[in-house]
Every structure is written in structure tokens, then in C-alpha cells.
Write a structure and sequence with these properties.
- The structure holds 3 protein chains of 3 kinds.
- Chain A starts with a helix and ends with a helix.
- In chain A, strand 3 (about 185) and strand 4 form a beta hairpin.
- In chain A, about 35% of the residues lie in helices and about 5% in strands.
- Residues about 1-25 of chain A have low confidence and may be disordered.
- Chain A has 7 helices and 4 strands.
- By secondary structure, chain B is mainly alpha-helical.
- Chain B is built from 16 helices and 4 strands.
- In chain B, helix 3 (about 45-65) packs antiparallel against helix 9 and helix 13 (about 340-360) runs antiparallel to helix 14.
- Chain B is globular, with a radius of gyration of 24 Å.
- The two termini of chain B are about 15 Å apart.
- The mean pLDDT of chain B is about 95.
- Chain C is α+β, with helices and mostly antiparallel strands.
- Classes of the chains: A mainly alpha, B mainly alpha, C alpha+beta.
- At the A-B interface, helix 1 and helix 7 of A face helix 4, helix 5, helix 10 and strand 3 of B.
Chain lengths: ~270, ~425, ~180
């Protein structure tokens, strides 16, 4: 929607200026994201609950190995408008993550081998990062830092479509004359075309618990739905309240218009 | 025009209060019986709408401050905590963030209305200048506020804008740098900067509210201008503010609120920049730095000048120019309805500002195809900036002298009601 | 005839204005609610509403203080004597005859049995019901708690016996998890 509005705005400007420049294909310039549609688009769109739960499974089995989700709590997984896991399911998910523990009775936070003491997660915890700090992540990934995914959908121009295009944009042959940097991967939807992330998803990368066939497209679509929810957990509440507010304001505007006409009737 | 007060206290208590603190008399005279030209159109409702905007920003802002942490380590996360965990926090924050845009939309309409109907001309010069001061304070407040979420755009916007002051190095060596360090409380934008910007962002709206009080005071001494631009000649030209303009303002305020609601509930990030959802990183500048839309025309003018100090002067000069408008306009006639020569120049200025806004949003080396000609944005921005200055410093004084205005109507009542009814009303 | 029409119109006009004003008032009230509700505990605070405590190291006659929802909770292992004393008190003689136990219905009487899940374990929120001070362990005439602020005295079941406090120390929702753990909240 946002993209459409932006596009509309640019088109309006373009019309005002009698047609703006047509972007020629430039080496390394990111391709426009794929035009894929999601259930949460439009003024009445909601998240597909099953897709959110499958998308969580993709994050939980694939993405989380490199990407943090710092801003999301396990409790949020149970909230209305989200994946709506039951309390018991969310507690089990939380307990499957290890959280840095508070100091123990001896005041220690590290064991005698220097490893961080941990405890199983509870609902109040946020998803713990896969690496203790940025340096550890960069050291693992050849200097590259996998970004936090909490608001990634809102932090990228193109939003869900962009993230989906990145996830499904691997495996093409680079055009003649373009060299893929050693240790990087070709992805034409990524600015510069050289991306540090190896193709994360493939057909059958997960085995869905609900029996859905795990194709690459399905996995990408599901995990993008999940990440959109992670970035905008109150979207359903927002759209519902927005509808109520607009209905109310329409009624109030109607009444005010009648009052306005009545008051001004004898003034002209 | 305000005339003697017509307030009569209705009971013992109001009589008692009136002789001690004539608050009710003041409110009655300014908001109930205040004689208002009977021909104000929809563009005159934006004063009320702006008061509404200021109130919304202050109320939501006070509430957000209860949850916000003004530290480099905590700011981004505290905003996200507001968005996720605080009850209705997402609503309050989206209203506040989009409220800034709605505020500027309203203020630009208000300003162009003032320009079109000559509301800055005698005896309303002070009213106009107070308005310019409010506009400046609004820009400062909005800038400070934009820094607070501590995203990439917050950080780099703060860096670029505060670095404008370092251009003063070219006037007195080291002075600009010293000022920049003073603003930052360090050698770069950082924790101290964020904390003081938060303090100022909280303070300035109350200063704005005070100047708005003066602005309304300065409005109520000469009274409203009107679309005809002629003076009120008697009671037949006016209507009491209440109920005529209270109900009209309220109606348009609700229409404005509907537009506001569409933005907040259905496109809450439309006016925002995706980069601001990436936490501030002092080591990496985003590929394309842009200010918020309401500052884009000035940004285009800044970039139109290749020399640093000169660019900054052109930017601030564009705002300072507004102060001089009452004396730059040499015409005896206020409203552009009766100024056939200046009117087209006004509309060119209007579209010039939109063009500058568009150019400000583009990448620095971009080009734009105008009627088949590939022109560099830099050239267009230069033309735009020159026209902006030329309108105020050349068109206003010169056209005011050479223009032959259309004949003005006898009175507001005559123009609105027709000569017979006006005579009857007298 | 003419006056009927005028009266008619004025009623309709009044109704329109009153309806407009009423709807606007509803709008103001509706807009106020989010601004009020934002001050209530946020979701992240509510998510921290339960805590687990290891009670294996508490000796008879001793207590530990745990934190639950930012409040101190006394977990006290009572002696047989303390239990017997608490059981002997007739409910009718208590200033507050209600159990104040979140695990029981509101109307439950303040018998000793209604104040604990297991007789030896007393679990109460350690905040004096008078004005919020924290009572001292083992002091006062009843062997339970004495509030240092205004002298309220509680017995070994945490019930108010003397002083200005109006209610027994409240019992939080809790459950035993195995032999050595208590989950509060």
C-alpha cells in the first residue's frame, strides 16, 4: 500500500514535469521488488494466522541461527492479532531458548570455563540474539553483520515485497560483465547485487507441522508474513480502530454539516 | 473593531468574578461575540485547525515522554516499547509522528492563504511576523522531535543540520566548529545531544503556545482580514464568532481529522523514512539522506548553492524573507482577487515551492525530464530558488507600483448580500 | 398555525444541536481513553507477573523475602508451635474475619487453614495494609510481624491482630511446583 502511495506520488510529480527519466538498467542497481500480494494488505487486510505460525517455524528453524529478533517477546506470540499460539505453546517455545541468567548465589554470570550461564526462557523474555555481540557475529560471517529482523520489513524500502524478493531472488545467473565478489552471492534485488547472505531457504528447508508443502515460495511468503507481524504487531487492532474512528467522524461531520447549514441559513 | 465589551454577567457569582478577574468577559469577547467578517471562506478555518494540531501534539507528546528514554542506548528501544507494549502506545506515537506532518500541512495552507489575501498588510504586520516566529519554532521543534527515535535518519539528520552552523568557520575561523561542539555537547552528535534535544523538544511547544496567544491577540486588535481584503465598515459586515464560526471551524476541523485518521490508521509510515527503523549507527551514513517533506524546499535551496556558507545563507534567507513581506508589498490592495498582475506570479510561487520540495527529495545528481529536455535537478533547483527570492524582493515591490487593481466592492455586506440587502441591513 | 411551525422548527433545531454536541462529547471521551490507559502497566510489565522461588534452603522458624511484581513476598516456614497458636484463634475475635487469599473465594473466613496451602508454609505479600510499610519478622505480641511505621501487629498467619491496619496481609496467587519450588502469580 505504502509503495503504491509512493508510486502514485512520484507519478503525480512525473506528470507535472511531463514525464520523469526512465531508469535504465545499471549494473548493480537493485531490481524493483516482485509484485507479490499478502493477506495483510489493504484497509481490511489481516494476518493469515496459519501463515504466521508457519512463518514462525521458518524463523525458528532457519533465520534465528544468524538473525536476532531483539524487540519481540515470547509473550507477544500469544497476543491477539499475532500468531496466537496458546500459552502452553509459547511457554514451550520460550523454554527452548537459552537466556543469559542473572548472577547465581555466588554472584557469578560465567561458569569456570568462561561460558555465560543461562536459563530457559520465560514468556516475559525477548528472543535472545544468536551471538553475544556484534563483533562475535562479524567474526563468524567474514565481517558481515546479519541485521536484526524485528522491524526489517519497515526498515526497507519496498517492505514485505522487498524481503520476499531477496529471499527468492537467489540462483540466477549474473549478467555478462558482472563479477560476483568471492564469498558473496548474486541477488539482483539487493543494492549492489552482491549479498553476504547465502540462500537461506530452499524447497523442503523446513517440514511444516501443519502439513503444508514447503516450497521456497511458500516458506518465503510465510516468513515474510511473520516478519511483517513482528514489525507491526498492532496492525489488526490499528485497522479495526481506524474503521470505527472513521465511521464515528463521518457521523459527527454529517451532524456538524447540518448544524452549520442551519446556523448559517439566515446569514446570507 | 473589537469595540466595547457587550458582556453582562448573568448571576451573582459571575458578577463577583467579573469585578475580580474578568476571565468570562474576556472569553465572551474573544470567542463568542467577537465580530468576524461574514465572508470568511474555508481557508480561514485553518487557524482553528492549527490550534487543534498544537493541542494534539502537546497532549500526545506529554504522554509519550512518560515512556521515552533520552539516551543513545535506550531511545530506539523505548520507542519500540511504546509501539509494542504500552497500552495504545502505537496509536499515540503514530498520532504524534503523523501529527507533525498534518501540522505543517495546515500551516502551509494557512500561510499561502495569508499571502493570497494580503493578510500581512497593514495593520496586521505584527500578526504576520508572530506567525513567522511560530513557523520557525515549529521547524525547530519538529527537527528536535525527529531526532528522538534515534534511528539512522534521526542521527544523520541531526548531524547534517547541526553541521550547517559549522559553515560559520568561513566567517570567523573556528567559530562554527565551536558552535557545533556547543550544540552537540561533544565532538559529534551523541548522548548529550539527544538528551538536550529532548529537553528542548518538550519546552518549545509551550513557547509556541505562548506565541500563539500573542498571535491571536494581534489578530483580535485589527480583526480578521477577509477574502475581499477590504476593511470592515460596520456591524452589517460582521457576524458574531459564535455560533457562526465555531460551527464552521468545527465542521472543517472534523474533515481535517478524517484525513489525519486515514494517515494514522491506514498509512502510518507513509510520510516516514524506512531508514529511521534502523537504529542510529555513527559509522554508516544511509545512502540517501532526506529531511521530512515539510523541510524539502529549503533543503533543495541549500543544495542549489555549491558554496557551504552561501548555501546556508540562502536557506536561512528564504525564511528571513518572510519577515519583510509586509513592507516589500507596495500595493494598496490586499486581496489577490483584485490584483490581476500579481496573481499569476503567486501561483507560480506556489508551484515553485512544490517543485523545490520535489527536487529536495531527489538524489543530488539526479536529472528530470522537462518537456523532453533532460535537465539537471541542480539547475532546476537554482531556477526555483531564484524565483522564490525574485517573487518577494522584485515582484512584490515592483508589481505593487505598476499594477492597476480591479475596482474593490463598496463593503463586505454589499458584496455578500447584494446592495439591496446590505442597505436593508444598515 | 405560524407559531406551531416556529415551535416545531426550534425543537428540531435544538435536537440537532444537542445531538451534535452529544456525539462530539462521546468523541472527546473516546479520545481520552487511550491517553488514560497508557499509564496502566504495559504488556511487558504484565508479562513479568509470575516468579518461581526455590524454598529448599529455608529452615523452620525462618523466612525469605522474594520479589513478585516489585513487591516483597514473605515465605515463612512455621514451627509446630506457631501453627498451633494460629489455629487456636477464633475467627470471630479477629479484626478482619476474611481470609484475603487470592487462591480462595473472596468470602472465605480467616481460619488458619484458609491462610495456607500447606500448614507449615505461610506465603503473604509483605506490605502492611495500613500505609504500605514493610512489617518486621518475628516481632510484636503475636509472634508474627510488627509494622515499624504505626505499630500494626500481625500473628503467625499474617492476620492483623492489633493496630491501625484494616486487613490481613494478602496472600498472592501461588502454587507448589514439586517439593522445593513455589510459583507465585
Amino acid at each position: 500500500m505504502r509503495t503504491a502511495l509512493r508510486l502514485g506520488l512520484s507519478l503525480a510529480f512525473a506528470a507535472a514535469l511531463a514525464g520523469s527519466a526512465v531508469a535504465a538498467t545499471v549494473m548493480g542497481e537493485a531490481q524493483a521488488p516482485k509484485d507479490v500480494s499478502f493477506s495483510f494488505e489493504g484497509p481490511f487486510g489481516t494476518y493469515d494466522r496459519a501463515a504466521l505460525q508457519r512463518g514462525f517455524q521458518v524463523y525458528n528453524e532457519v533465520c534465528k541461527n544468524c538473525h536476532s529478533l531483539n524487540l519481540v517477546s515470547f509473550a507477544a506470540l500469544t497476543e491477539p492479532g499475532g500468531p496466537e499460539f496458546t500459552d502452553a505453546e509459547a511457554k514451550a517455545i520460550a523454554a527452548s531458548y537459552q537466556i543469559p541468567a542473572d548472577p547465581n548465589k555466588q554472584g557469578q554470570t560465567y561458569d569456570d570455563k568462561g561460558n555465560r550461564l543461562t536459563r530457559p526462557g520465560i514468556l516475559a523474555d525477548h528472543f535472545p540474539p544468536p551471538f553475544p555481540n556484534e563483533e562475535a557475529a562479524r567474526a563468524t560471517f567474514n565481517g558481515a553483520l546479519p541485521p536484526d529482523l524485528s522491524v526489517i520489513v519497515k526498515a526497507r524500502e519496498g517492505g514485505p515485497q522487498y524481503v520476499y524478493s531477496i529471499l527468492t531472488g537467489f540462483g540466477q545467473n549474473p549478467p555478462k560483465g558482472f563479477t560476483v565478489v568471492d564469498g558473496k552471492y548474486f541477488n539482483p534485488y539487493f543494492a549492489g547485487w552482491n549479498i553476504s547472505m547465502p540462500p537461506p531457504l530452499a524447497d523442503g528447508a523446513v517440514t511444516y507441522t501443519d502439513g503444508t508443502k514447503a516450497t521456497l515460495d511458500q516458506e518465503a511468503h510465510d516468513v515474510v508474513t511473520f516478519l511483517t507481524w513482528a514489525a507491526e504487531p498492532k496492525m489488526e487492532q490499528r485497522k479495526r480502530l481506524g474503521f470505527e474512528v472513521l465511521v464515528f467522524l463521518t457521523v459527527l461531520a454529517g451532524l456538524l454539516y447540518l448544524s452549520y447549514r442551519r446556523v448559517w441559513k439566515d446569514a446570507h | 473593531m473589537s469595540g466595547p465589551s457587550t458582556y453582562t454577567p448573568s448571576n451573582g457569582f459571575t458578577r463577583w468574578l467579573d469585578s475580580r478577574l474578568p476571565l468570562l468577559r474576556f472569553m465572551n469577547d474573544t470567542m463568542v461575540t467577537f465580530p468576524t467578517p461574514r465572508n470568511l471562506n474555508v481557508w480561514y478555518t485553518f487557524g482553528g485547525i492549527l490550534t487543534f494540531c498544537l493541542a494534539v501534539q502537546i497532549v500526545t507528546g506529554v504522554v509519550l515522554a512518560m515512556h521515552f528514554t533520552p539516551t543513545a542506548a535506550g531511545a530506539f528501544d523505548s520507542v519500540e516499547n511504546i509501539m509494542r507494549d504500552v497500552n495504545y502506545g502505537w496509536l499515540i506515537r503514530y498520532v504524534h509522528a503523523n501529527g507533525a506532518s498534518m501540522f505543517f500541512l495546515a500551516v502551509y495552507i494557512h500561510m499561502f492563504r495569508g499571502l493570497y489575501y494580503g493578510s500581512y498588510k497593514a495593520p496586521r504586520e505584527v500578526l504576520w511576523i508572530l506567525g513567522v516566529i511560530i513557523y520557525l519554532l515549529m521547524m525547530a521543534t519538529a527537527f528536535f522531535g525527529y531526532v528522538l527515535p534515534w534511528g539512522q535518519m534521526s542521527f544523520w539528520g541531526a548531524t547534517v543540520i547541526t553541521n550547517l552552523f559549522s559553515s560559520l568557520d568561513q566567517v570567523v575561523p573556528h567559530m562554527g566548529t565551536a558552535i557545533a561542539h556547543w550544540l552537540w555537547g561533544g565532538f559529534a552528535v551523541g548522548d548529550p545531544t539527544l538528551n538536550r534535544f529532548f529537553s528542548l523538544h518538550y519546552l518549545l511547544p509551550f513557547v509556541i503556545a505562548a506565541v500563539v496567544g500573542l498571535h491571536i491577540w494581534a489578530l483580535h486588535v485589527p480583526g480578521n482580514n477577509n477574502p475581499l481584503g477590504i476593511d470592515v465598515k460596520g456591524p452589517q459586515d460582521t457576524l458574531p464568532f459564535h455560533p457562526y464560526y465555531t460551527v464552521k471551524d468545527a465542521f472543517y476541523m472534523v474533515l481535517f481529522a478524517m484525513l489525519f485518521a486515514v494517515l494514522v490508521f491506514y498509512a502510518p509510515n507513509f510520510v516516514g523514512n524506512p531508514d529511521n527503523y534502523t537504529p542510529a549507527n555513527p559509522l554508516a551514513t544511509p545512502a540517501h539522506i532526506v529531511p521530512e517533506w515539510y523541510l524539502l524546499p529549503y533543503y533543495a535551496m541549500l543544495r542549489a548553492v555549491p558554496q557551504k556558507l552561501l548555501g546556508v545563507l540562502v536557506l536561512f534567507g528564504a525564511i528571513a524573507t518572510l519577515v519583510f513581506i509586509p513592507w516589500l508589498d507596495t500595493s494598496k490592495v490586499r486581496s489577490l482577487r483584485y490584483r490581476p498582475m500579481l496573481k499569476p506570479f503567486f501561483w507560480v510561487l506556489f508551484f515553485d515551492c512544490i517543485l523545490l520540495g520535489y527536487l529536495g527529495s531527489q538524489e543530488p545528481q539526479a536529472t528530470t525530464n522537462v518537456f523532453g529536455l533532460e535537465l539537471s535537478d541542480l539547475l532546476l533547483a537554482r531556477i526555483g530558488a531564484i524565483y522564490y527570492y525574485a517573487f518577494f524582493w522584485i515582484c512584490l515591490p515592483v508589481i505593487g507600483l505598476i499594477e492597476k487593481p480591479k475596482p474593490l466592492p463598496q463593503s463586505i455586506a454589499q458584496a455578500v448580500l447584494g446592495s439591496h440587502a446590505a442597505a436593508a441591513a444598515e | 398555525m405560524a407559531s406551531t411551525i416556529a415551535a416545531d422548527q426550534s425543537t428540531r433545531r435544538d435536537f440537532l444541536y444537542i445531538a451534535t454536541g452529544a456525539v462530539a462529547a462521546v468523541g472527546v471521551a473516546g479520545a481520552a481513553w487511550p491517553l488514560i490507559d497508557q499509564m496502566n502497566p504495559s504488556a511487558s510489565v504484565l508479562a513479568l507477573s509470575s516468579t518461581e522461588i526455590d524454598i529448599s534452603s529455608i529452615q523452620e522458624g525462618q523466612q525469605i523475602v522474594a520479589m513478585w511484581q516489585s513487591k516483597p513476598v514473605f515465605i515463612r516456614k512455621r514451627t509446630a508451635k506457631e501453627i498451633a497458636e494460629a489455629k487456636a484463634v477464633p475467627v470471630a475475635s479477629l479484626p478482619d474475619p476474611l481470609a484475603r487469599n487470592a487462591n480462595l473465594p473472596d468470602s472465605a473466613p480467616a481460619t488458619d487453614a484458609n491462610r495456607e496451602i500447606k500448614p507449615e508454609w505461610l506465603v503473604v505479600v509483605g506490605i502492611c495494609t495500613h500505609l504500605g510499610c514493610i512489617p518486621l519478622f518475628g516481632e510484636g505480641d503475636y509472634g508474627g510481624y510488627l509494622c515499624p511505621c504505626h505499630g500494626s501487629q500481625y500473628d503467625t498467619a499474617g492476620r492483623i491482630r492489633r493496630g491501625p491496619a484494616p486487613q490481613n496481609l494478602p496472600i498472592p496467587p501461588y502454587a507448589f511446583e514439586g517439593a522445593t519450588k513455589i510459583k507465585i502469580g
